[in-house]
Amino acid sequence: MLSISRFLSRVASNALNFALVLLVVQETERALMSGLLVLALVIPATVSGIAAGVAADVFPKRLQILIADLLRAGACLVFASQEASVIGYFGIAVVLSTFTQFAGSAEGAILPHIVDRQYLARANAISHAVAGTAQIAGFAILTPLALRVFDSPDTLFYISAGFFILAGGYALAIGRQEKPPVVDQAGDLRDPWYAAGWREMHRDRRVFQAAVELTVIGAALIILGGLIPTFITDVLNLPVEIGVLVLLPAAIGVVLGLQLANFLAHRIPITLLSRTGYLGFIGCLALLTFARQEAEFLGGYGAFAWLDSVEIGNFDSTSVLAATLVAPLGFFYALVAVAGQTVLNDLVPLSMQGRVLATQGAMAAIASSVPVLVAGALTDLTGVTFVMAVLSLTIAVVAYTTIARPGRTRIEPLAVGR
Q1: CATH number for the domain including 106?
Q2: Helix-helix angle 249-264:317-347, to 10 degrees
Q3: How far is CA 417 from the centre of its chain?
Q4: Tell me: the pLDDT tens digits for 8-64?
Q5: DSSP-assigned letter for residue 236
Q6: DSSP secondary structure letters along 360-407
Q7: CA–CA separation, 46 vs 362, rounded Å?
Q8: Residue 103 and residue 177: Cα distance in Å, rounded?
Q9: What is the pLDDT of residues 371-417, one digit of tens each?
Q10: Which domain holds residue 153?
């Protein structure tokens, strides 16, 4: 039931987030504004996200998910009845993101309560697979259907409201929770509510390192999310609603990566798994950045001459190459995500799961807040290719200095049945 609830709510969330970015870009025609919209979607994680994490550790989690879903449904219905404007798009983005923090924190915190620890890696793999499938359904099906076929943003908000209501209903049917044993309690009652998650991370260097790894990859995706619409229009020369189909192979890569990560999480050092994921992610992102130049270069060789003649509807050789590259990009992202999430779920006490996961989300939001604005402004001035190249290099430098540098904590395979 948790997977169904998550799927429904995330289809709606992804569709709405993508639609809001498209609508803002359509109204303003500036990459900076898409960056601002992305920022409006992630900023609530810094304050309301931490509060949501505390609530998830204190109040009934299923009830919290239900209330958050109903509030999101109500916000969609109210917005659809109002006249659309750029300011309104930013306003609904903040409102939806705020309520999403409460649903997401409770969903993340409830997982270790209903899944035995030896199955957490598999559960996290399934969770990420559900999220990836929901992203595809939202980005590639629901949003294009509402905006391109029906030409009606209001229709999207009404459909999303229905999805949120259904998700809330399924949340009530999530399996019973077991109370955490006394030995699993942690935290310090003297810690203020906003610092408890941060303090808990520092109790175990492995937990803090995993949180940093998730923060770096999370911040990278947030920044990349603000650049993708411009990449599709400027590099792939496609309408965004059509060009998003190029990103679909990423889901295949994510599924394969999740399967491998699930298998390896308890068999090889987690550090090795995450570092391999980072290395591959950075390499694939760099290749994706220069997809047009690479397609033109490869087309001059006999074995790849067919690239020059590719024409599948609106898709040319650059689109085909980009679609090929996003599959391994998704694969390597999955390795990092499952490795980090499994460490947090396995080593953080059940009573602190909500606060730690929310604090990690806040770390990613803070880390990306200024860069996403800078990336948007630079894109308007220099073009998206240059900015994505800088992003790839920056991720490589940050990943090395904070994660891969010799002397960092080595996280061994986590014991099954711990």
Answers
A1: 1.20.1250.20
A2: 30
A3: 28
A4: 999 999 999 989 988 888 888 777 787 788 888 888 767 787 888 888 888 888 899
A5: S
A6: HHHHHHHHHHHHHHHHHHHHHHH-HHHHHHHHHHHHHHHHIIIIISTT
A7: 4
A8: 17
A9: 888 888 898 899 999 999 999 999 999 888 876 554 455 555 555 44
A10: 2-404
Distance CA 258, CA 277 (A): 11
pTM score above 0.90: no
**Tally of domains within the chain:** 1
In 124-166, DSSP assigns E strands to none
Q: Residue 309: is it exposed, middle or buried by C-beta count within 10 angstroms (0-12/13-18/19+)? A: exposed
What 3-state DSSP class applies to 312?
strand
Any domain includes 387: yes
Question: For residue 268, which amino acid is it?
Answer: I
In a domain, 417, yes or no: no
- Residue with token string 């390597």: 332
Decide if 391 is inside a domain.
yes
Task: Give the Cα separation of 297 and 332 in Å (integer).
Answer: 25
Burial class (CB in 10 A: 0-12, 13-18, 19+), 304: middle
Q: How is residue 94 written in tokens?
A: 């903040």
Please check whether residue 308 lies inside any domain of the structure: yes
Helix (H) or strand (E) run with residue 231 in it:
helix 205-234
The residue assigned the tokens 């074995």 is: 303
- Alpha carbons 102 and 199: distance in angstroms, whole number: 21
Query: Are the C-beta atoms of 216 and 399 separated by less than 8 Å?
Result: yes
Q: Are the C-beta atoms of residues 385 and 393 closer than 8 Å to each other? A: no
Neighbours of 149 (CB within 10 A): 10
Question: What is the C-alpha to C-alpha distance for residues 164 and 25, in angstroms, rounded to an integer?
Answer: 26
Among 100, 85, 83, 82, residue whose Cα is nearest residue 41: 100
Residue 403 is encoded by which pair of tokens? 């994660």
